[in-house]
Amino acid sequence: MRKVYLLFLVLLLLSISNVLQAQNRTVSGTVLDEKSQPLPGVTVQVKGSSAATVTDVNGKYAIKVTNLQNVVIGVSFVGYTYQSKTLKVGEKNADFNLVPITNNLDEVVVVGYGTQKKSTLTGSVATISPKDVQDIPGLNFLGTLVGQTPNLSVSENARPGQPTSSVTIRNPVTLNSNGGITTPLFIIDDVQRSEADFDLLDASEIESISILKDAEAAIYGVNGANGAIIVRTKKGRAGAPKISFSSQFGTSNAMQLPKYLTGAEMAKWSNAYTQTSVMSPTGALTGDSLKADGYDVLNNKLNTGWYTPDELAYFSNPANNQNWLKNYFHAADVEHENLNVSGGTDKATYFISGNFTNQNSNFSGLENYKWGLRANVETKPAKGLTIGVNLSFDYSYAKEFWMKYPSESLNNDVLILGEHLPWMPYSINGNPVYSIGNSSVANTIDLVNFPLLQSSNNFEQQPDYVTNFLAHVDYEIPGIKGLSAGFSFNDNINTAFSSQYGTAFTYYTYSGLGDNDHIPGGTIGTAKPISNGDDVTFSPDLVKSYQLDAKLNYQHSFGKNNISALALYEQTGNSGDGVVTSVGSPIIGALPNDNFATGAQTVNQANSIVYEYAFESFVQRLNYDYDGTYLLQLTGREDGTTYFAPGKRWGGFGQVSAGWVISNEPFFKAAAPWVDQLKVRGDWGLLGTSSVNKSAYEYFQQYNIGQGSSGGAVFAEGSRGNGITAAALPNPDATWDHKFETDYGVDAAFLKNRLAVTADYYWTHAYDMLAATSAATPLTVGNTAPVENYGSVNNFGTEVTITWRDHINQDWSYNITAFYNWSDDKDILVPQAAGIIGTAQDRDGKSDDGGVFGYESLGLIRTQAQANAIIASRAAEAGGASNVKIFGLVPAPGMINYADLDHNGIIGPSSTNAYADEKYLSNKANNHNGVGFNYGITYKSLSISVVTGLSWGGTGQLGSYDYGTYYSAHGDLQENRTALWNEGYWTPQTPNAKLPAPYYYADYSVTSNFWFINSFSWNISQANISYVIPGNWIKHVGLASARLFTQCTNVAYLVNPYPESYRAPGSAVNVYPQERTITLGINASF
Asked: How many CA atoms, within 13 angstroms, populate the side-chain half-sphere of residue 789?
């Protein structure tokens, strides 16, 4: 009986087990992207259940679900539209083909201290996908954002190792010349960071990029008036470890080096200069005029500045001509690598990345590189509790040549090589010579012997170390659905160890060869030592900052009412300390260290860096929407800072914005079913700007310590000692600038979201702007006026973005984005000198860009008859023919004639008005209209994308470096001139030439419309070709995905308005040329 019972029990248990097994099933499938490539790391979840998993490297997943009822399997992945499938009882397979988010309606956008759905945004917020910039190599991350969105102006610095020149959003204005700031706020993971730190970012570690353009940045209060650029770095995702890497190599070289005259051309130009210089004041050839051999016709005396026929023949020989800039400016190697590892479980995730970028200078012997590490770890030790740590370390290094005179910069390196005479060697018989062949010149750019400087290891270098630690704790408070608390602390340490090493050189002179001693060579002269600083200088700096945040978040829905709220307390602090120390007389050939210097040591306390300041803030934000149709956002922030005096330290800022999604209305859906979204929005806010910068602590009386004008007695020159004098007057009432911002916008999508349009009009009123009023302060005050909250400026503009995305068939797809932006401003109240109030230069009530101010050209004086007629027409007003002058010169052939606006017969400043004959010559100096065309096309696995840009509306003009500067200290002409002069210049034999006579520098070097050119600009800034290797090709080597690509930046300028195309449109003659970078690379994961 017992055996029967046991057998019955076993059979019962087996039957129960079979029933239980029948109640569950395992659902499996594969998740692919839009190119049918496997997507690893995709979250797969059973709707209404906690059951979840992620796809493996092959995009496959398996998950247990109930078999007693239908289930919904949902898949989600960043950048792709959420998808779900309903499986009936017994069904065990669900495959998905995810498509990228194209309409952006459901896209989650990062804003200040949080995220919002793009469909419910009420402010002007642009987003840039990291994928669009991931292939662009470079030492500065901000430089990769060029052309990605309207009214984000990124002016690239072509010099490797140098920071981005300028970054602005909607062209803000500052009146504070003492440290005014127009750059936006830079936010990384909700922490305010410096622009330098932002440039160290690598695209491979970035999850999202948002641009706050309007009062949406009011949540940052005093620092938000110039907008904000917000980056979120990547986090780990649950799943098996995913490893991805990218490697690219290439070269970087000038798009175009400036063109200069050949040796023979320059010598002839110089002869024309010399010939004109000895002509009569009327410009006629006289007995002092020179013959072809350089001898004057009266005394038969050789002019020492003349290039004789034998010298011209020597200079005409190509073997005796060198393009020095081209000889020393070479293509530079570019390298970029990154490696990321991510993964984790439901309880803990991690993301670890490393990157390295090397972009050397185009001059041999210089280095520029950076590398970085990041580790982002999050754990969930308890229900509702998340603890995270984000640690990063970045190192950058830049090395340049060191020139004490005229001061080192890569711009000067380019200029001294370009202006160096083609026939003048840097050494003769192995002996370094003066680059201008003139030992009387001191401390000018022409004194530099570039190859000697390059080989001497005289350098300036700066290694920077940036360590950033961010920890955060977030907790979902039980009992109150949607309520959470968070705390974060960020600590940043930036250490720089700048150093300079300059020695002494020995230059030689030679007597010269040829009939007039202009051919290099001859008898060696006296050796002369030249000091290039002759010291070793160290400048260690330590900059520290911290940010502490404590916040409460609430998010809940009541029927169709959706509400979210934020309350946050923030505290930030910054401090810096540094010193400059140097030791003289380094031993040449020894290590560049103060241990190998024999001179005196000095510690320059006056140049040391010591500062400290702090902010304290209280932030509130409330968001409400009814059924995603009626939208409202309220923001408030109170900021306090130690910048200002007690009683002036606190200020309130805030924002109100609203929106109406018309396309959600039933009546609209019925009337316009082809409209997928139509939203109108408005934004109004009060913000501040941190243009205080160097004007901090203006409420303190500051002092100068020194001698003479720097402080102390001004008498007894030989024996006076140091003293103290008061600096500018203090201002205990100084506070920050204020700015009232408005924005009115429309967001629309049509034709199944293939067409998207965004349009904005903005208007801002800045007031209480910190400005120096010294120009309007009379001398009787006896001191420099303080910086005051004085100025007021309006800024306004429009921007429109239109995007079309579509596919032709299964293999072909394309996208086109066009955007237009225009902006301008109006000065309401700005500091001005009393002498210009009421004149054409008075800016009150006018745009800050009133055009180019200068002299109105009436064309070249080509003949003596024309010169005589000008003198006769102005003689009465000038009080006699002898008084008629153009910039102190008697009107003569070869000069530019200008309009005599004050009718006194004299062109130039008068005794009572420095601008008597000047006026605004154009409506605008700068281009205020901009258009971008970004387009891409994909065929199966092959993709091509291009970024182009156009601008117009301003005034192009040539400047002093275009037609050549003149240094009177030389006593002769020693710098080569640009090929602009090949347009033809006036001589007695060529009276109809385009350009003036070379001699009349005082006449043609003034700002005038004679040198105007077209300002229209059209360029291709980026081009990318990539190919996704099919999965069945790479699965055998263990790769989940692989992509080959080639990237080109600064592809081409399609319009060049410069005569003879002697320079590139994007690079002035005296700056480092714009670089074209071409790289090949691979991106893969496994």
From this structure: 20
680-693: pLDDT as tens digits:
999 999 998 765 55
Enter the pTM of the model: 0.86
Cα separation of the two ends of the chain: 62
Contacts of 738 (CB under 8 A, 6+ apart): 651, 686, 687, 688, 766, 767, 768
Neighbours of 717 (CB within 10 A): 9
Nearest to 27 by CA among 44, 50, 41, 42: 44
517's tokens: 């001693």
The pair of structure tokens assigned to 417 is 């090589």
Residue 50 is classified by DSSP as S
* Phi–psi pair at 958, nearest 5 degrees: -90, 145
pLDDT digits (tens, 9 = 90+) for 278-324: 876 655 666 667 888 888 887 788 888 899 999 999 999 999 999 99
Asked if 988 and 927 count as a contact pair (C-beta separation under 8 A), the reply is no
790: which 2 tokens? 């004085």
CA–CA distance, 191 with 574 (Å, rounded to integer): 13
**Collapsed DSSP state (helix, strand, coil) of residue 728:** coil
For 162-193, give one letter per residue: b (16+ CB within 10 A) or e.
bbbeebbbbbbbbbbeeebbbbbbbbbbbbbb
Tell me how far apart the alpha carbons of residues 89 and 750 are, in angstroms, rounded to a whole number: 39
Amino acid at 969: A
Which residue, among 428, 402, 399, 424, has the nearest Cα to 413 in the 3D structure?
402
Residues 6 or more apart whose Cβ sits within 8 Å of residue 1002: 887, 888, 889
Cα(808)–Cα(946) distance, rounded to whole angstroms?
19
Which token pair is 829? 């109240």
Distances (CA, A) of 920 to 366, 656, 903, 924, 956: 44, 41, 17, 9, 14
Q: Cα–Cα distances in Å, from 938 out to 144, 807, 1026, 1041, 1058? A: 22, 9, 9, 17, 37
What confidence score (pLDDT) does residue 970 get?
35
> The tokens of 775 are what?
């120009």
Which residues, at least 6 apart from 293, have a Cβ–Cβ distance to it below 8 Å?
Answer: 302, 306, 308, 309, 515
Going along the chain from its start, the domains and CATH numbers come out as 2-97 (2.60.40.1120), 108-234 (2.170.130.10), 252-330+929-1085 (no CATH), 700-729 (no CATH)
Asked if 955 contacts 925 with a C-beta cutoff of 8 angstroms, the reply is yes
Nearest to 202 by CA among 302, 310, 352: 352
- 254 token code pair: 């000038």
Residue 107, SS3 per DSSP: coil
- Judge contact between 435 and 403, C-beta under 8 A: no
| Alpha-carbon dihedral 435, 439, 440, 446, rounded to 10 degrees | 10
Q: What is the mean pLDDT of the chain?
A: 86
Closest CA to 810 of 52, 36, 3, 25: 36
pLDDT in tens, 438-459: 444 454 545 678 888 888 888 8
Determine the Cα–Cα distance for residues 922 and 877; give it in Å rounded to an integer: 28
**Could you please report the per-residue DSSP string of 307-326?**
--HHHHHHHHSGGG---HHH
Closest CA to 356 of 342, 373, 340: 373
DSSP designation for 628: T
Segment 815-845, tens digit of pLDDT: 999 999 999 999 998 888 777 887 778 888 8
Sign of CA dihedral 218, 220, 223, 226: negative
Measured N-to-C along each axis, helices 263-277 and 309-316 cross at an angle, to the nearest 10 degrees, of 150
Question: What local confidence, expressed as pLDDT, does residue 801 receive?
Answer: 97
Q: What is the DSSP letter of 297?
A: T
Q: How many CB atoms lie under 10 A from the CB of residue 991? A: 15
**Which of 195, 186, 197, 188 has its CA nearest to residue 231?**
188
C-alpha angle 794/230/747, rounded to 5°? 65
Q: Return the H-helix or E-strand segment holding 859.
A: strand 857-860
Q: How far apart are CA 713 and CA 639, in angstroms?
A: 44
